[in-house]
Here is the input.
Amino acid sequence: MLKYLLYWFPMLLLAVLNGIARDLWYNKYVSALVAHQISTFSLIILIGIYCCLVIKWFPPNSEKQALSIGIIWTLLTLAFEFSFGLLRGNSWKQLLHAYNFTEGQIWILIPIWVAIAPYIVYRFMSK
Here is the structure.
């Protein structure tokens, strides 16, 4: 499982690059909410592609292990996101706002996708 823990770090890089792309490219052409939504869906795609590569090159031993990978990656993602946000001076209210689905904030899809993507990809590739 240690190697899968290490495979989380490139995902972090993908998320940072995705955020940079949002800020430098389309953020100035659309509203903040639309930029957030585009960024969320583009990161879902990037994580999906990355997950396919990891599972193809380093397949888990079982469905249970694939699910464990997703849970570990999600815990790392949330720990990083909230600790980094707090270090940047954001309040809990600001950090949790990105998860307010009723206001069009769809960031909650990221930890959900990170949690289930390894399992889904494993199941798909095992057929």
